[in-house]
Amino acid sequence: MKEYFYGRYFKCQTDSDTVAFIASYSKSKEHRSSLIQIITADGAYKADFAYEDFSEDKNGIRIGNCVFSDKGVHVDIDKPGLLVKADIVFGAPTPLEYDIMGPFRFVPFMECRHSVYSMSHDVSGTVAINGKDMRMDGGKGYTEGDRGVSFPRVYSWTHSFIEDGSLMLSVAEIPIGKIRFTGIIGVIYTGGKEYRIATYKGAKAEKIENGRIVIRQKDMELTAELIEKSGHGLKAPKNGGMSRIIRENASCKARYLFKIKEKTVFETVTDRASFEYEF
Q1: Rounded to 5 degrees, what are φ and ψ at 104?
Q2: From 103's CA, which of 46, 171, 223, 230 has a CA 20 to 30 Å away?
Q3: CA–CA separation, 216 vs 237, rounded Å?
Q4: For the chain, what is the HEC assignment?
Q5: Count: domains in the chain
Q6: Is the pLDDT of residue 1 over 70?
Q7: Share above pLDDT 90 across residues of the chain, in percent, rounded to a whole number
Q8: Range of the domain at 133
Q9: Which of 40, 251, 276 is nearest to 157 (CA)?
Q10: How far apart are CA 125 and CA 74, in angstroms?
Q11: Quick one: pLDDT at residue 230?
Q12: Which of 152, 144, 114, 109 is nearest to 2 (CA)?
């Protein structure tokens, strides 16, 4: 059995609530299964399904009675200790100008390939998790995905909605054969304009330390700083199986600073950032 994982991440956020759904399947040498994970500001939840319960077509991903697509999310989970009902509708997506992996999408044998499907879209609807109700009307959404064999050994990922836009950044140790290097992919989408930051465009990590990341690319500089170092445990892929535990802050305090030619484009401190810091 070929080791492989595939998953999509659907984040929905309002002024008061944050919820993200992760729909995935995985195949290791020992086991194969599908999985739905849900993370909020208060906790993380998971529901295991059979591998055969996962399917995907032009209408989206289906796991059991749950459907995840670019049009919205329908979740109906009733398992011991976990009762989830969600019906969320998405507005028109904001896709990237081109693949976030750039030329690296053509490199064979990469352990993980990232995709960004929408930097920002409107969301509306309701979510109920173990009796706690959330209304997502007037909120924003973000959708991305990963596929491959394993998450990077060390990495950091963050996403946040900003005024008039959205940003994401991923910094990871990338192995290709016997070579390991720090790979960077990121997008700042603001004012209807996309600023791409990536290794293939010359980006370098000037600092990765104590939750603070500073990236420089020619005349652009992006700082992302995790201020609250907590988080909830999520399953993540290792050698195809969901055997690794990472920690994600779904809605935490973070600082972002973006400069062009030493001029500040924006600086913000938010308590609703999403952040994973695995260094």
Answers
A1: -70, -15
A2: 223
A3: 30
A4: CCCEEEEEEEEEECCCCEEEEEEEEEECCCCEEEEEEEEECCCEEEEEEEHHHEEEECCEEEECCEEEECCEEEEEEEECCEEEEEEEEECCCCCCCCCCCHHHHHCCCCCEEEEEEEEEEEEEEEEEECCEEEECCCEEEEEEEEEECCCCCCEEEEEEEECCEEEEEEEEEEEECCEEEEEEEEEEEECCEEEEEEHHHCCEEEEEECCEEEEEECCEEEEEEECCCCCEEEEEEECCEEEEEEEEEEEEEEEEEEEECCEEEEEEEEEEEEEEEEC
A5: 1
A6: no
A7: 92
A8: 4-278
A9: 276
A10: 10
A11: 82
A12: 109
The partner residues of 56 in beta bridges, in order of sequence, read 61
Confidence of residue 128 (pLDDT cuts 50, 70, 90): very high
For the CA atoms of 56, 58, 60, 61, the dihedral, rounded to the nearest 10 degrees, stands at: 0
pLDDT at 177 over 90: no
pTM of structure = 0.96
| Whole-number pLDDT of residue 133 | 96
* Predicted pLDDT at 279: 87
What region does 64 belong to: left with phi over 0, alpha with psi -120 to 50, or beta? left
204-209/66-69 β-pairing: unpaired
